[in-house]
Amino acid sequence: MNKTWEDFSIQQPVVTRMLVNSIKKNRLAHAYLLEGKRGTGKKEIAKFLAKTLFCKDIYGEMNPCHTCVNCRRIESGNHPDVHIIEPDGLSIKKQQIQLLQEEFSKTGVESKQKFYIINHADKMTINASNSLLKFLEEPNEGTTAVLLTEQINKMIDTIISRCQTLSTMTVSKEILSEQLTEAGINPVLARVVVQLTNSIDQAQSLAQDDWFAEARKVVLQLCEVLDSSAGLFFIQEKWIQHFKEREQVEIGLDLLLLYYRDILSFIIGEEDAVVYRDILEQMKQRALQLSQKSIVEKMAAILEAKKRLNANVQGQLMMEQLVLKLQEGS
After folding, report:
1. Are 97 and 87 in contact (CB under 8 A)?
2. CB within 10 Å: which end of the chain, N or C, has fewer?
3. 82-85 and 31-35 as β-strands: parallel, antiparallel, unpaired?
4. For all residues of the chain together, what is the average pLDDT?
5. CATH topology of domain 5-167
6. What residue ranges of the chain have pLDDT lower than 50?
7. End-to-end Cα distance, the chain
8. DSSP class of residue 107?
């Protein structure tokens, strides 16, 4: 389903209203700074704004058609007058901005408009930032720049002062879950994936991944065998076969953490907060068997395991030690 500005207004009402009003009145700023946490849709909004400016068949409330040649090329990253700058390694370097400035000086290939997105703008080196200032101080007519950052505090004041800053808000889990369900995602999976990411695109990708659906099953199977002596055997036979990469193990630990958080929700009388809603009866039984102190200790053990994982402790060893801790007081 193709998005509209109305869709963005649900997630980011203030940013959407300001941009749409500016487009309608032909008063777009020459440079915007979209700042906010990861997963709040900054890059998606920037690309959507580019589509709106270049679309050949605008409809409704300034919505791009998504099907014309300009919309399709912007989506694929091949439009000659729309440029996206990403960090080269750990930073955005002066040479990248200089190449961009060379494009500034040219006439638009197919129109008088040019559009630039600088992703992770906080990662510009000092030389790159100083090089960009000239464009921001003396913008070319028909040129729009959108800078994106998750860490505005790391950007130099002279850059910030020459942009119109728009702050994106973290999207509520309820809204994300509803959007995923409307997109055809299983409501049970939708409720789980929104706990792992604030990005609707990442959440949808995860929910549609067969590996993730199986990962959830493996985690719940582990929780069932923790009461027996089969925990370590399960890690060797099932867990390490499914969670092979470090990023996958981290997802597994997050899913495990959600399980114990759900049990804690039962214990403190907040059943509505439970994520694994398809196993409510099992959760209730576990809540009767475990104390609040025991649950908190198990959650702390999982968080400690995540730290050890990030410190490059061997995955199987880390999980075996975690299982032993989780079995204490069970």
Report:
1. no
2. N
3. unpaired
4. 89
5. Rossmann fold (3.40.50)
6. none
7. 47
8. P
Structure tokens at 287: 């809540």
- Per-residue tokens: 38: 């990861």
Contact 35/15 with Cβ under 8 angstroms?
Answer: no
Radius of gyration of the chain measured on its C-alpha atoms: 24
Looking at residue 304, what is its pLDDT?
Answer: 93
pLDDT tens per residue, range 226-265: 877 788 889 988 999 999 998 999 999 999 999 999 999 9
Q: How far is the C-alpha of 243 from the C-alpha of 105, rounded, in Å?
A: 50
Residue 2, helix vs strand vs coil: coil
Question: Is the distance from CB of 167 to CB of 35 less than 8 angstroms?
Answer: yes
CA distances to 21, 76, 306, 309, 314 from 249, rounded to whole Å, are 45, 32, 9, 8, 11
Q: How far apart are CA 266 and CA 256, in angstroms?
A: 16
* Beta-ladder partners of 196: none
Q: Full-prediction pTM beyond 0.70?
A: no
Residue 288 CA: distances (Å) to CA of 40, 107, 225, 297: 38, 71, 17, 16
Name the residue among 120, 128, 129 with its Cα closest to residue 152: 120
Measured on CA atoms in the order 20, 21, 22, 25, is the torsion positive or negative?
positive
31-35 and 164-167 strand pairing: parallel
Which pLDDT tens digit goes with each residue over 142-174?
Answer: 889 999 999 999 999 999 999 999 999 887 888
Q: Which CATH architecture has domain 209-327?
A: Up-down Bundle (1.20)
Residue 184 vs residues 189, 210, 276: alpha-carbon distances, Å: 11, 15, 19
- The pair of structure tokens assigned to 70 is 């300009």
Report whether 118 contacts 92 (CB < 8 A).
yes
Name the one residue in this structure whose structure tokens are 């009461």: 227
Give the domain ranges of the chain.
5-167, 209-327
Q: What is the per-residue pLDDT for 140?
A: 76
